Amino acid sequence: MRVVMTIANRFEQWSCEHIEFASFPLVWSYFLEEKFGETCLGVMLPTELDKFDDKDCLRVALRLGLPVILDDKVPIPVDETAPNPNAGTGFREFRIQTVHNSLEDGDVVPFVADEEPIDEEYGAIYFGLYGVGEDDKLEHIADRKTYGEVFNLAQKLTPGIAFPSKPIFSPRRSFQK
Question: pTM of the prediction?
Answer without folding.
Answer: 0.72
